Backbone:
């Protein structure tokens, strides 16, 4: 076995937005950090839209997730300021608000229901008639019948964020190894080394698994926690503004005859249109049908889309869990000492990055942050389906 001779305080397996943030924060606290990543083409971080939307992401029964999302959204301004200062790069955080609109009567009912749920939780949301929606957002189609404005749901350019986190980590001393981790070797019940597919090794006193929907594939994690994480496919488009293409100023989410679609406008003229939610296992094929449906529904709400340039049709795999909450912490009694898991962030991983990174680095420092019981990594340990593959 060959590899770097140094023994790191922490090895991080997976360099999506979660692993990059954990690595940077740990290094900034003075730990020596090695990060191993193989940049899989369908990693969620690259595909994502970058919405930071606790209010519009509210779903019945997801109160615990709402609390996490709000807590992480509250950290975002400071997190962005720190990562921009540490990297010298701009992450295009836009405090633009989000407008959710409805096209037909059924869509209006569904948007009303969301509004009442938001109000029940004391969230900032305003119900608007169709004309008021168009006044706020002139790019909307005349057919829009009403909507809900969530002025505190914002966005960040997730690709820029990942780049800035990587640079901030490098400047703080994170050593990045390009490769695939195969297993974690332990000695005396404690983690010792991350072994890569090419036989090289990353010796470390602690290991944090942040491998997104692939976290369960690593051998030697002892527990079965990560195996409940399954890929949830999302197809998504990237468009670019052209002269005369009237595009929105803020994030627009819509129900179009029952189908959800969203459009997230960047300051640089990019418009991200997404996204499907598909249980397709590891398949990440971009299908003609999904591209057609996203463009059809997007155009029904924002007619200017027809004039924009279509520059990318992609797909990513969200790391989903059975209860839509992430797994953060020690993965259960079978796991070796020194092993932590931070994965399974589903459809909100970009939003949950600041909270997760701080929580993990606290745990590495021996401190359990309050309020994170709902996402304990060992909460499925007693579930008989765990480890049988039933979760995937
Ligand atoms: C279409 C789509 C839209 C989304 N929109 C939003 C949104 O608007 N807002 C939001 O908050 N969230 C959104 N998400 C969710 C968000 O993208 C994810 O929750 C988040 O990116 C998860 O980050 P991660 O670092 O855990 O995983 P990933 O980004 O998947 O990264 C995992 C990394 O681990 C690496 N890896 C895996 N196994 C190994 C191994 N054995 N060895 C080495 N490296 C390995 C992979 O190559 C990859 O780089 C969206 C996701 C999708 C797919």
Residues:
């Amino acid at each position: 076995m060959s590899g770097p001779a140094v023994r790191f305080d922490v090895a991080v397996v997976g360099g999506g937005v979660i692993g990059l943030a954990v690595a940077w924060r740990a290094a900034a606290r003075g730990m020596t950090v090695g990060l191993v990543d193989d940049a899989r083409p369908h990693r969620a971080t690259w595909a994502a839209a970058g919405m930071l939307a606790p209010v519009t992401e509210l779903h019945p029964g997801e109160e615990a997730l709402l609390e996490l999302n709000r807590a992480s959204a509250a950290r975002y301004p400071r997190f962005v300021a720190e990562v921009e200062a540490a990297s010298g790069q701009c992450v295009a955080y836009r405090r633009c608000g989000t407008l959710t609109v409805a096209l037909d009567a059924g869509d209006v009912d569904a948007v009303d229901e969301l509004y009442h749920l938001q109000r029940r939780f004391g969230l900032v949301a305003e119900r608007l008639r169709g004309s008021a929606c168009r006044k706020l957002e002139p790019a909307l189609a005349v057919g829009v019948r009403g909507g809900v404005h969530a002025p505190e749901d914002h966005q960040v350019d997730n690709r820029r964020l990942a780049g800035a986190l990587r640079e901030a980590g490098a400047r703080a001393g994170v050593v990045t190894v390009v490769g695939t981790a195969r297993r974690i070797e332990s000695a005396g019940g404690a983690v010792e080394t991350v072994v890569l597919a090419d036989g090289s090794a990353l010796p470390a006193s602690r290991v944090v698994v942040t491998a997104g929907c692939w976290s369960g594939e690593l051998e030697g994690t002892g527990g079965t926690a990560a195996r409940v994480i399954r890929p949830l496919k999302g197809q998504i488009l990237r468009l670019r503004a052209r002269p005369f293409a009237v595009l929105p100023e803020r994030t627009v989410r819509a129900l179009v005859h029952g189908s959800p679609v969203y459009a997230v406008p960047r300051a640089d003229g990019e418009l991200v249109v997404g996204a499907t939610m598909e249980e397709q296992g590891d398949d990440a094929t971009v299908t003609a049908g999904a591209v057609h449906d996203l463009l059809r529904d997007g155009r029904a709400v924002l007619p200017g889309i027809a004039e924009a340039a279509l520059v990318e049709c992609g797909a990513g795999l969200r790391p989903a869990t059975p209860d839509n909450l992430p797994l953060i912490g020690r993965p259960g009694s079978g796991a070796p000492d020194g092993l932590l898991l931070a994965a399974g962030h589903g459809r909100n991983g970009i939003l949950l990055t600041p909270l997760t990174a701080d929580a993990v680095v606290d745990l590495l420092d021996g401190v359990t942050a309050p309020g994170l019981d709902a996402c304990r990594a060992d909460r499925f340990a007693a579930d008989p389906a765990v480890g049988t593959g039933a979760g995937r």
